[in-house]
Amino acid sequence: VRVYSPDSLKPHRSSEDSSVLNSGAVENSSATGGSALACSRMAEHERRRFSASELISRLQLSQRKNSFTLKLGKSLSARVASRDRQTSSNLSPSADCKPLPHLPSSSPDKATSRHRGSGGSSHSAPHSPVGPVPPLPTADNNTQQHRRSTGFAIKKSILYQEYSDVAINREIQRQQGEEPGAEEERLRVEGAGEAPSPSNLSPSSSFCSSRGSAFSLWQDIPDVQTSDQLDNFSNEERKLQEAKFELVTSEASYIRSLAIAVDHFMLSQELGECLGTQDRQWLFSKLPEVKDVSERFLQDLEHRLEEDILRFDVCDIVLAHCPALRRVYLPYVTNQAYQEQTYQRLLQENARFPGILARLEEDPICQRLPLASFLILPFQRITRLKMLVENILKRTTPGSRGEDTATKAFNELKRLIKECNSSVQSMKRMEELIHLNKKIHFEGKIFPLISQSRWLVKHGELLEVDTQTMSISGSKFKLPTRPVYLHLFNDCLLLSRRKDTWKFMVFVHAKIGQLKVKDFSQKLQGISGFIFHLQLCEGQQLKHHILLKAHTESGKQRWITAMFPSDPLEDIEQASENYDLSQVQCIKSYQAQEHDELTLEKADILQAKTITSDGWVEGIRLSDGERGWFPKTNVEEITNRSARLRNLRENIRIKCVTQKLEKELF
């Protein structure tokens, strides 16, 4: 077991940390003795246990101090320069206005020492990341220290919602070919007054949140900075360790937010009194179980860090915990639809709920985040966890043992997410069919609408152009139109007229394979809008034909692509053969509003298939091959050709190794 320097970690205990700390570093001692010595060793062991959560907080606080000192120095420098321009008699700043960040590197000033404690290149003993550490709690002040520790963990720590958002923004920069954190890295170097070390030239360099809070990196850990082995790491190896460390730190931040969801909201006595047992169950589902499983997951990750802070691995731990993750995440995500319905119903129907919820959300512990952002965390986390393992896989050496383990972990997480999506979809699809069965009626025919293998693909109203009753107005033809409603399922199309607001009478239907369409790219004379001609056949015979008009280009294109989707295998082959396809990246998450739309998460990379004049894009997500429409405003074109090629190569490599593993298993 690695023994950590007291100056490098020295964690103070908090109520949150007590649930996530694992095994500890044991001090060497020459003393011998009985039970008193054993108790002493146990107490020391308890104090010295490694905590990723505590380490993150200390590194963040250290970097915030450096950032503040740097800004203060720049402000003073600016004032001095302004005063010097006004008075040419004396060009030297006064002693009390001396810029703090530009103190000589040899100065014994405490500010310089604090800079080096974070910057990391000094031959002296490693400094604590946050300067002097408060004394460890004793039996007399244990309760008071416990309260102070808890307050520190809550007020000084970044919640997962913000941590995840900033980490994804960094990934967006990397995938677009930019160098993330270049500005922050320049400030760090300028503030420390040192030349950049090779470890700070990694694209995984320091980055800041929108609130200016710095995030910790593996290379910022004092034991890593002072290790003589660090110089032997290549740039790619550093990137790999940063990717692994991000998985650990993000898990610690995630548990911090889960603790608020459970302890602050779910266990609130006031909130519990205004909720019924069933509402409470639907609203919070298996949240405590999710938290427990995640805490055990973090414990194993922390133990691995403690064993070897320089060359630790995490993917085997992810793989080992996948069964437990599946046990709690699958029911939680499946319950999400009931959770959302319950939340909205309580806001509208429970008179006490909105007021109590508002008071709980105003508590500083929530950092201005609503309950909804905490409830959705597990679904976001399991998706993010897959992305983190994918990033590790991209950086592992091809053919290595690490690649094999990372591939297995990635496949298990991908399978879990697919199960979650399928479970949610199947439940929603059946409910939707039951609902539609009450609204759709057929003229003199029996059509069994409800089927396990059927689901709704798209529905909506278009205008039917009546070519039989055309009229002439001046020199132009005028064709009357009337509304027609389309219900497109995965196996058939229904055309109907509205009987009233909520009922439809079907006048013709056909199987998907018996549809034909002709797109009129040019506007027909006398007809405004976007036109296409649809034929419904029965065998080789024409059953019905209709001229349909949409109000927008995207409206027409979306109906055509929904009726005649491209072959997914052809899309994959095209992406493999053509190495410079148009790519866009999601810069703002999007929740699908219609069946043919694609839900996007920030940093998703997509191949752009169609872009319409009214601002919609049809794209294929590279990571899973899912296809759909989304607003152009939510994505940004990747203009860097080398970045496009790298994204495609990484995607093809991951597909190859996962397919190879699947073949070996089956």
Quick synopsis:
InterPro entries: DBL_dom_sf, DH_dom, Ephexin-like, PH-like_dom_sf, PH_ephexin, SH3-like_dom_sf, SH3_domain. This protein has 666 residues and is an alpha+beta fold.
Q: Can you offer a commentary on this structure?
A:
The protein is α+β, with helices and mostly antiparallel strands and 666 residues long. It contains 20 helices and 15 strands. Helix 2 packs across helix 3 (110-119), helix 8 (235-266) runs antiparallel to helix 16 (377-395) and helix 12 runs antiparallel to helix 16 (377-395). The protein starts with 34 loop residues before the first helix and ends with a helix. Keywords: Guanine-nucleotide releasing factor, SH3 domain. It comes from Oncorhynchus tshawytscha. Pfam families: RhoGEF, SH3_1.
The backbone outline, from C-alpha atoms, is globular
Mean pLDDT: 74
Instruction: Sketch the major β-sheet.
Output: 8 strands, mixed
Distance between the termini: 39 Å
Binned strand content: 5-15%
- How is the largest sheet built, in terms of strand order? 1-7-6-5-2-10-9-8
Query: Using DSSP, what is the number of strands?
Result: 15
From the helix content, strand content and strand pairing, which structural class follows? Answer: alpha+beta
Percent of residues in helical segments?
A: 40-55%
Instruction: Give unreliable regions as ranges.
Output: 1-50, 87-156, 179-215
SS summary, helix count? 20
- Evaluate the radius of gyration: 31 Å
Sequence-ordered SSE layout with sheet pairings:
Elements: H1 35-48, H2 52-86, H3 110-119, H4 142-155, H5 160-175, H6 182-192, H7 222-225, H8 235-266, H9 269-274, H10 277-284, H11 287-307, H12 315-334, H13 336-349, H14 353-362, H15 371-375, H16 377-395, H17 401-437, E1 440-442, E2 456-465, E3 471-473, E4 476-478, E5 481-489, E6 492-500, E7 503-511, E8 515-520, E9 530-538, E10 541-550, H18 553-563, H19 568-577, E11 583-586, E12 605-611, E13 616-621, E14 627-631, E15 635-637, H20 641-665
Parallel strand pairs: 1-7
Antiparallel strand pairs: 2-5, 2-10, 3-4, 5-6, 6-7, 8-9, 9-10, 11-12, 11-15, 12-13, 13-14
Helix pairs in contact: 2-3, 3-6, 5-8, 8-11, 8-16, 10-13, 11-12, 12-16, 12-17, 16-17, 17-20
